[in-house]
Amino acid sequence: MSGTPTKSKTNTKTKHAPKDSDQIEFQDNALAQVLYGPQAENLTRLSERTGVQVSSRGLVVMLAGDPAKVAQAKKVLAQLYARLRDKEIDHIDVETVEGAVRLSEPDETDPWSGQTKDMFGGSRLTIQTKKRRISPRSKRQKDYVEAILDNELIFGIGPAGTGKTYLAVAMAVQAFILGQVDRIILSRPAVEAGERLGFLPGDLKDKVDPYLRPLYDALHDTLPGDVVIKRMESGEIEVAPLAFMRGRTLSHAFVILDEAQNTTPMQMKMFLTRLGEGSRMVVTGDMTQIDLPDGTKSGLRDALETIGDVKGVATIKFDQRDVVRHHLVTKIVQAYDAADALRDRLKKGYRGDKDSAARDAGDDGTA
Question: Of the ranges 85-94, 145-154, 252-261, which one carries the lowest mean pLDDT score?
């Protein structure tokens, strides 16, 4: 990081929280403007997320606020600027800033915490595709990418927007580009939300494509469209419903099963036993979004209970802190989680009241 920081502290005897002021100076004006963002929106988001007053004058950014938060904001700016300077990234938006703030949050249980030198995990965890470089935006995303690198079967569990599928597809594309696998196979259960394929218009492709669209979107975000079409025509990239996996051995392939919470135990067992030599398999799902008929156990839940502790199998669990979509998505997930927790408490309270009433009635009958 170029530039020499200067620091001045203000001592006060009032009861207000101690405040610190600091500044950081950059050398390259063009990179600084990318870092600041249009109308300094990236600095504004940094201020909102950390509670630090952030202002800029030319190549100098001034910071003021809680000492720990000032240090955190400075760390974020230093790391993002260094990544621009080293050409690891060429664009920074408010989502990038959000991810950097998440990664810089102190966590005593996280071995990465406090490692200012490279909180993004270094080049090993930077995913290179034909269209962009992709880096983890939360601590669990770093764990997830590392787990995919080090294991042959990985479960990614958590709410929407945490990057489970996107990162898995990006890792698959990178492995394919590097020649580590010969094929990419992406799959989803084709029956969701109570709908049946027979009632949908069109031929089989027309029926299943809407269910597979999120996988196509992730592919097109990491590979040029003409490359996707060419590789799909050659069979090197395959996007297919889960039922199409039956009877196959998937060797030298990067295989991803998305929305796995909507599989049955038999379907999940069938899929997992397709794993062939030289292959890597990633299974993603959200246990709060199960669309199976009442009374049907999720194959994802069954698999986690059955093989979750098997050596070579890794499980990464995300939560709302890892949501990397629009900042409102985090609040939406939190609101639904709170509502679900309240409903569970009310149900338990209602059952407790009924049990108590039944015991009282029994006592009255024996008196």
Answer: 85-94
Q: Which residues contact 100 (CB under 8 A, 6 or more apart)?
A: 76, 79, 80, 119, 120, 137
- The two three-digit tokens of residue 258, written as one number: 């998305």
On the question of pLDDT at 204 being above 90, the answer is: no
The three-point CA angle 36-37-42 to 5° equals 70
Cα dihedral 236, 242, 243, 245, rounded to 10, equals: 40
pLDDT digit string (tens) for 137-164?
888 888 999 999 999 999 999 988 888 9
State if pTM tops 0.85.
Answer: no
Instruction: State the Cα torsion 190-127-158-43 to the nearest 10°.
Output: -130
Alpha helices for the chain (secondary structure H): 29-36, 41-50, 67-85, 94-104, 139-150, 164-177, 204-222, 225-234, 265-272, 299-307, 327-366
| One-letter-per-residue 3-state SS of 303-330 | HHHHHCCCCCEEEEECCHHHCCCCHHHH
Confidence band (pLDDT; 50, 70, 90) for 26?
A: very high
| Residue 367 structure tokens | 């008196």
Name the nearest CA neighbour of 282 among 131, 181, 208, 135.
181
Integer Cα distance of 353 and 121 in angstroms: 52
Average pLDDT on 82-98 reads: 84
